[in-house]
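Severity: low
Component: inverse-folding endpoint
Summary: output formatting inconsistent between runs
Steps to reproduce: submit the following C-alpha cells with default settings.
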C-alpha cells in the first residue's frame, strides 16, 4: 500500500511476459500514515493485511505472498513501529514471510528484528532488505545473528553504495559461509514514479547510470563469478533462497 499498487496491471504483465510476478500486502511508509490507519491499532491494521491475504488484493482475487513494511532515515517512529507490529501479527496468523525495507546508515535492521522477535515471529521468515547498502561487515553479521535473511539487492544504486563495494561485501560474506542467507537483486521498477521526470532523468544520466532491470545479470554476476563466486553459490542465492523464503 502507498506504492501505487495495481494488481490487475501486474497480472496482465505477468500473463503477457510469461513471468511469475509475486505481489505483497503491507504498508510502505517512513512515518506518515493516513487517517484511517492512524485510527486503528496494530491489530486493526493487521486485519487489513489479513483480509488481502485471505481474499485477494483490490478485488482481483490475487493473493499476496509476503508482507512488506519499511523503516528509513527517521528510524523506528511510533507509526513505523505500529506497522511493523501489525505486519508481525498478520505474519503469525497467516504464516506469510515478511520483507522489511531497511536503512543500514540509520541502523534500522536490528531494531526491526527486535520488534519482530518481540511479536513472536520466526526470524527465519524475515528478509531485511537493502542490507547491501553498507559494507560494514560487523553490522551485517550482527544482523545475521538474529536469524534473518538479508537483501544484497540495490545493485546499480550507487547513491547508496557503489558496485565495487557491494561486490566486495558479497564476496566476503560468501567466504564466511552466508550464501544460504542472502538474496541478490537491484531494487529496480520499470514503472517507478518516485521522482519528477526531469529529476529521474538527471539521476539516470549522472548518479545511477547502471541501474536497470538487467544490470545484475549483464555485469554483476559475471564479475562475481570471475572473482570466485561458484555456480552453486549463485544458484543458492538466486533460486534456492527465494524458494525457501517464499515457500515456508
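Observed output (run 2 of 3):
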Amino acid at each position: 500500500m502507498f506504492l501505487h499498487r495495481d494488481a490487475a496491471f501486474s497480472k496482465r504483465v505477468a500473463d503477457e511476459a510469461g513471468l511469475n510476478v509475486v505481489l505483497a500486502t503491507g504498508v510502505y511508509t517512513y512515518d506518515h500514515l493516513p487517517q484511517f490507519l492512524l485510527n486503528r491499532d496494530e491489530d486493526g491494521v493487521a486485519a487489513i493485511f489479513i483480509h488481502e491475504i485471505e481474499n485477494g488484493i483490490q478485488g482481483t482475487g490475487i493473493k499476496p505472498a509476503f508482507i512488506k513494511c519499511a523503516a528509513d532515515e527517521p528510524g523506528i517512529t511510533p507509526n513505523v513501529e505500529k506497522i511493523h507490529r501489525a505486519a508481525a501479527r498478520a505474519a503469525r496468523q497467516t504464516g506469510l514471510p515478511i520483507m522489511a525495507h531497511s536503512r543500514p546508515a540509520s541502523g534500522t535492521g536490528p531494531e526491526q528484528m527486535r520488534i519482530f522477535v518481540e511479536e513472536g515471529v520466526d526470524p527465519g521468515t524475515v528478509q531485511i532488505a537493502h542490507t547491501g547498502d553498507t559494507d560494514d561487515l560487523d553490522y551485517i553479521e550482527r544482523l545475521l545473528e538474529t536469524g534473518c535473511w538479508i537483501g544484497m539487492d540495490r545493485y546499480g544504486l550507487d547513491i547508496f553504495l557503489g558496485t565495487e563495494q557491494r561486490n566486495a561485501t558479497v564476496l566476503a560474506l560468501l567466504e564466511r559461509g552466508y550464501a544460504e542467507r542472502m538474496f541478490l537483486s537491484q531494487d529496480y521498477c520499470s514503472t517507478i514514479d518516485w521522482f519528477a521526470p526531469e529529476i529521474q532523468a538527471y539521476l539516470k544520466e549522472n548518479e545511477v547510470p547502471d541501474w536497470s532491470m538487467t544490470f545484475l545479470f549483464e555485469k554483476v554476476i559475471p564479475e562475481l563469478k570471475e572473482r570466485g563466486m561458484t555456480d552453486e553459490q549463485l544458484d543458492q542465492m538466486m533460486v534456492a533462497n527465494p524458494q525457501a523464503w517464499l515457500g515456508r
